[in-house]
Amino acid sequence: MRLVVVGNGMAGSRLVSEVRARDPHIRITVFGAESCRPYNRVLLSEVLAGGSRPDQVRLLDASWYAAHDVEAVFGDAVAHLDRETRHVVTASGRRQPYDLLVLATGSDAVVPPIPGVERAVPFRTLDDCARILAAAEHAGRAVVVGGGLLGVEAARGLAGRGLPVTLLHLAGHLMERQLDVEAGEVLGETLAGLGVETRTGVSAEAVLEDGVRLAGGELVEAGLVVLACGVRPVTGLAAEAGLEVRRGVVVDDELRTDDPSIFAIGECAEHDGTVYGLVAPAWEQAAVAADVITGGKALYRGSRLVTRLKARSVELAAMGETHLTEEHAEVVRFSHRARGTYRKLVIRDGRLVGAILLGESDAVGTLTQLFDRGGPVPGDRAGLLFPGLSAAPVAASPTLMPDAAKVCQCNNVTKGQIRACWEAGARDLAGVAAATRATTGCGTCRDAVEGIVGWLCEQEGISV
Predict the structure, then answer these.
(1) Distance separating alpha carbons of residues 401 and 325, to the nearest angstrom
(2) How far is C-alpha 237 from the geometric centre of its chain's CA atoms?
(3) Residue spans of beta strands (DSSP E) within 25-99
(4) What is the pLDDT at residue 18?
(5) 459 contacts: CB under 8 Å, gap ≥ 6
(6) What is the pLDDT of residues 409-460, one digit of tens each?
């Protein structure tokens, strides 16, 4: 059977590796529009901040494709789908036949239609990072347009290099989709302490040579303007081929489009009315599609989203229905703005349906497990927000954490899987990551995985 994958980003590259792990014989060809090997887009803010080099965020080694008998075509985007003859046609004119096709075309950055916008740089790709860093060397000041997750990461990354940054956001507070008003304000105050000035409730009217002009005429000076105005699913290829497209390419529970020989996964796919913009759902979809493609039975039932902010010196996790009020749910809240701390639980029918944790907290693991499993919430609400104050065991402790506890949300890795990997001979973080993929998504589970590995070594008296 011939499998063709269109898109070699985080979703497409994961799909390829999942299929190959299940079937060593299926013929696989993957086309990537970018000229480089796939990389972890989630960690681009670390590249901006100088915490990681571009080569450190690659997802697959250059030798992986040959070693696993996968043909990878870089820098030649697929331009046309011929469903009648089951071929894809690339920009260079290559025609590639397929029996099954997977669309993993991802998203493009939203570029607002304002005068001078060509002077700004979107923050979306590794090439964008290179352009931003080159401009930052002589910019003096930077403006980031957009205060969602991506904009906050970009602003923090640039500030981490010592560049004064102004963050402009149209809504009344930062990350309004994930955070309530107070959490957004606390986040803004935290960023201010790191060198980022936040301006909310403002609209960029034009990009000029010396900065951004706001509606009303005010000029915010900058030598570098970065756009983080959101993303839009890339669906043109599917639409032109006559597939059903709404916000994304519409798929069923097997991730098939209305053409049973064509699948779609990741940010370009719309399942049950939802387009997911985070990596964990894309990787869950890749696993389901790989099962189906290789003859297994699997269904995708949607994902429970946990948003993690990965910027340096900013710890943030938000999940579920964070905007519900006391009229519709039980809300438990703690705020200590002087310390940059805000914690909120949203409980309905005895279940955790939403949470915000801003500032360093050892409650993230426990709350994420409760939210992900939909299990009953313990009666000690304060103990959930402050595990150290509770007489109950701390679920996030390696000693007391059950083997079923999910440690790496991006890759669905449990403590039991880490233990099994350790027992098989992986005695350090690198070995566990290679075997389980834990820590290779957003990276926020790194400390927890290191803690489990260290605890296991300590139990057996092994020096690492």
Answers:
(1) 32
(2) 24
(3) 27-32, 70-74, 78-82, 87-90, 95-97
(4) 97
(5) none
(6) 778 788 888 887 877 777 788 778 877 888 887 777 777 788 888 877 776 6
